[in-house]
Queue: 4 jobs
Job 1
Amino acid sequence: MASQALTDFLKRLDEVQQLVDAHGALVRLKKAEATLHSGGQQLQNVAAVVQHLVSPPGPGRPPEVQALNSAGVALLSAHLQGFFVDLFKEAARTTLDGKVKNLDAVTESTNTRGNPNEQNITRMFKSIGYPNILDDIAWKNMSNRSLRIKLRSFNELRNKIVHGADASVTKAKLTNYLNVLTNFAQKFDGKLFREVRSVTGADPWQKE
């Protein structure tokens, strides 16, 4: 069973997918616009415009597409960070409810700010008793080491974007990060489910 944090995260990823989809639409629109203003026989010109609008955009990207891709990376980072914070609170509630006097005091004293990088994720969940939560998370064609490297490169790219440094982001790169980090969130959610259940003896994400 998925946590509420994962359910909400997957819904929010629709916003990132909209930016990915907008990439092709913008390229098609730009090509159609260029054809419309290029002159020539009117009917042939209109036919070419329509063809650009309904055809795959092909290689090359205008500056506006770069901005869309960069925005997609920043938005994906924000949603991933929100997922880990929500999941941390959900796991803390299940693990510590009835065992500490003030559960809110525990969660509020934990630093949940910062990028969704390896160190910040580890620190958050270590604070409630799960110090090695990132260990062994892997799937086909993605080892744990490769996942950590991918997460590091994603956060480095995100930092370049939000701090105004030069960063080239293609649609393929954004799509790859979207796919990898979606898988990561799902695998992480499943591992934490098992970890919390081993401590509490109950399924942690059961809905009331």
Job 2
Amino acid sequence: MSAKHRQPIENTDTACFACGSDNPYGLHMQFSTDGTKLYSHVMPPAHMTGWDHLLHGGIISTILDEIMAWTAIHLLQRVILTKSLQVEFMRPIQVNTGLEVQGWVEKQQERRAWIKGVIYDEQEMEMARSTGEMVLFAPQDKVLQRILPLEMLAKVQQRFQSGS
């Protein structure tokens, strides 16, 4: 499906480092979907540099973790926690470079999902890829009451009730 047929996904967490619109130091990732994959376009700013104007590996990992998390949240309609993350750095990424990030569900089994993520540069070269194992929770799951503050738990439950 082409970019014009992708539907934007609403984000209600404005403070998040990766996706928060109000975080002055963050990546400001926004997401869209074609129903099978999630997509995000991001241009990491210069202050996220590692060595010699290259994007820091921790930031690359964050971008991939975020696309995979949102993929599980949106496509599987579950609250998630990342259990493990494997990243393969294919090519160096310069800061201030436009990137397209994609995520999709590879496999789901009971309370676990394996999600893939890929970062492409503006020439559609594969720059980095990842696999994440996510632990899945239903929004009403009692265990969430132990691990999330009540205010955040209410936001999570409201998000899933609205079908976003």
Job 3
Amino acid sequence: MSHISESFIGDVHRKVLSGGERKRCSIGVELISDPSVLLLGEPTSGLDSFKAQSICALLHRLAEKEGKTVVSTIHSPSSEAFFFFDRLILMCDGNIVYQGDAKASVDYFKSIERPVPQFANPADFFMKLLSINYPKQAKDNETVEYLSSKYR
């Protein structure tokens, strides 16, 4: 973002930075105070897959090299971005169905007879598996019960 380092961010009436540039700028503002914990809501939303992966790589580096705790919600990460995650919490209808090492999640779901298909993005598979339609149907209740009972 060095090419826009002297630009104004803009306001409600005048957009200077793109949505992705504003998103990355807001993450930069958070990093200025050198916090030990970063809480980020959807830091990759609105970014193309390359920039989203770059943000995930940056956050992973901050955690690994600088010892920062990074907690984030990320909707539909690419498979490349997914593998930058260290720990993962997956929920279904308010129930935790997986909490642990992100890389072990694929093996865990295989062990409970819900294997991630070969060549599939694990995050996409988990989102599809854990999605519940409301009002809930009997099948949805069975899915929630099965997944949450396996995790206990």
Job 4
Amino acid sequence: MAYRFEVMPRLVAAKAVAIVRERSATEGRRVVDALTGAGMGALEVTCTTPGAFALVESLRDGATLVGVGTVLSASEAVDAAHAGASFIVTPNFEPAVITAAHRHGLAAIVGCGTATEIVRALEAGADACKVFPAEQLGMGFLRAIHGPLPWAPLVPVGGVDAANAADWLAAGGIAVGLGSKLTSGDVAANVATLRRNLGL
């Protein structure tokens, strides 16, 4: 578990977060083990994965930066903290979730899809903004947002893969989030390709 002030520097250094969203606890365990074994520096276990909090708790003392994703309520943010997560990720902007996360020492990466949401999320204390769905918004969206908001910490998620992750970073992401395009198939090979393409 990392302190909140440590999360963003570590996330920037890792450059990518693996998003674990599986249909069973068994599959979630397999994917998490494959990711950590392959040297993934940061991962997010979504609340939609059965046994998500138990998975996170099992990683409490590891070297990987671990968060909980698809957090929709303040109570889920509290549960994430109790499980030993270092950050939460939301698909939407909900001020109460940010407050709960911060109250319990977690960084909050908040889902945003417009300039208005990004400004409001940052004003509410979000540590970074998850640009979602990035594939639909496009890399041009990140570049455009950084015109009036050059300081906005953006993490594109959705449509990011090992082949284009570096392009999303070049477009203005401080890190990227990768889901099924990283966690399906040969996870170790996918992570190796990602790390090579990101210069890790």
